[in-house]
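Late entry, evening session. Most of the bench is empty. Finally got around to the prediction I had been postponing all week. Sequence below, unchanged from the version circulated by S.P.
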Amino acid sequence: MPRIFDNMQKNLLPELRNTLDGAIRADFCVGYVNLRGWRSIEDKIEQFAGTEDARCRLLVGMQALPKDELQSLLSLSNEGDRISLNEVSKIKRRYVEEFRSQLTYGAPNNQDEAALRRLSAQLKAGKVTVKLFARHTLHAKLYLVYVLEKTPRIAFLGSSNLTLSGLSKQGELNIDVNDHVATETLETWFEDKWTDKFCVDISQELAEIIDESWAKEELTPPYHIYLKMVYHLSQEARAGINEYLLPKEFKLFDFQAAAVKIAARHVNRRGGVIIADVRSLKAFDFSQEPDDWRDLMRLFMVRRTRSFIKNNYAEPKGDPTARKYLEFPDGTRSYFPNRIPKTAKFSISSDKEDLYSLLYSDRVVDVINALNLPRYGLGNFAIDKPVKSPTEAEQKILDSLSRAGKRLMGFCRTNLFKRLESSGIAFLQSIDRHILRNYIFLHAIDNDLDIPIGTQDAALLDPKNVDEDSDSLVSTDSDVETEGDSDDVEGNAEGSYEKRAKFVYELYAKKYKKRFKWIRSNLFKEDLKDALLSDAQALIQVISLCPEWQASKDRKLETLVKLLTVDHIDRKVLIFTQFADTANYLGEQLTKFGIDKLATVTGSTENPTELAYRFSPKSNKRLGVVVNELRVLVATDVLSEGQNLQDCDIIVNYDLPWAIIRLIQRAGRIDRIGQDSERILCYSFLPADGVEDLIKLRSRLRQRLEENAEVVGTDESFCKLPQPAYARMGLSIALR
């Protein structure tokens, strides 16, 4: 009576292993086999001698998908019963590739690695021979074991494939067959299939696949692993380039054409593609889930960095010493210039006549660090239970104040140091405005008036606003059109701070009322008045250190003048600064030093593009049209994007921006297609050590440069950053 092995009451695997213990050879016919199934019995196969009569013959029957079987069954022709040698060859290749793909499932482990290596050895030694039955689909599951006992053959017949699930996990129906005649009949059936002309040996191919996989004996060189990763990561790009054709009227460089094709694939496959400049990476800073942004960019963005284009599309290829270029359809060439980062240094002495030494002092630093900054943390001063409850509109304002406080206070404090690093005049003007704004609040409190609240949310932290001082009226955020012009009216008020505050408050309440949110002053604690007055008095002491900024004693300005009048006297120079106050100061003072053909561009400039054309007429196709061509252009970052300024090959960072994207954009104004110079010079004024210790600007830029290289894939030089102290002591950091 046959026994049943259903993997529920009785498992097939233990019985099969016990039977193989005394076997001299075995014949298996299954529809499917996988590595884990083979691993469960491979140690029993190792005992076979590897001769013709002492081996394991494994016959794999092809299994079609149910829909394919149904289609073949319902076909009106009988061609499904026929097969050619060419089709057999295709079936063989398909199965071999399926086995190769098996090796990529799951994470590799030591057990699988050892089993694969033993299988490869068994295939090579002849202990295992694997054939593929290709004449037709074969669902049979037969395990025929030959032993030396009285019963020469023992068979297991049923539904279990040579998989771990089939042998021991999932429900199956198998029986053992011990009858001599029955097993002999099964042997004849197997032999008939094994010797069929459409039964093909795939043993060598399987061994080669194992030897080429992660389980091979010799270690894979890291470079090969890298190439494999690149191959798979570039699959989308390769598919896009190969699948799409562009209209002939598209006159593009090769790198542009490739980008369009890849973008087309993204659109067709995923329904969208990211088309953006590097500034769009700013989204990382605001995202709560930066990893999601990286995944989004990986799937939807087509990267085209300068170094990528230069290394992959520029000519001549294969010669690292030759100057690289792109060739236009008409045969003209656009060469890549070399970026040369340079540092512009200015000294600060202990001389009392040195204006910077007066401001770059411990006293000033201590004052700024000790500021209460109550206007940026108004939520901390709100009364919990005021006598008269706030209106709905006032409550919304109070709620927004409580959310904004700490970030804005930190921003304000750091921004004061940053303006000090930019220029002394910008710092002093900012201090003056800060004091005045405090007194405007004090005027409202003393007279029981509503307090005018400017921008108190994340908009203040946006780079578009750093052109103007956060305490100037020009920078006040507003979605409505205001009356009159938007000049910095605070600076036009004269007299004591109390008188100026009264004058400006009345302007705010009448002419500029829509630029502010207004809230009752009696909704705040009395401590607010004390904090406002304390900060104002402390900052007045700072101004008293240097009541009047004298450009003739400005060492930083002096260094810039030398750069323009001695080092590069006849060259076009593009000067960038973060702050409109600094830009206006430089424009005014450089003119006084006799530097002509100069213009200044800030966020309040009426037509920046016109000045860009005058500065760079050739690159903007304005030669012969532009009058009064410029040699020097001083600009805030309002000009750092969307302009062709490559008539110039010298850029000066008078101060260093917070965002690395700004540095990229600044350099990109002159390092563009059409730049004729062999090299472009990127000067950077680095902050004095006193301020550097506070704002940690160099280390922050170093970190952002490296992060940018990781995300975007660029390794360009924008500024020459000296190594920090720990690097000078022997711990080097590689700058990209």
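Two things to note before I forget:
The longest strand covers residues 23-30.
Residues 392-422 form the longest helix (31 residues).
Will write this up properly tomorrow.
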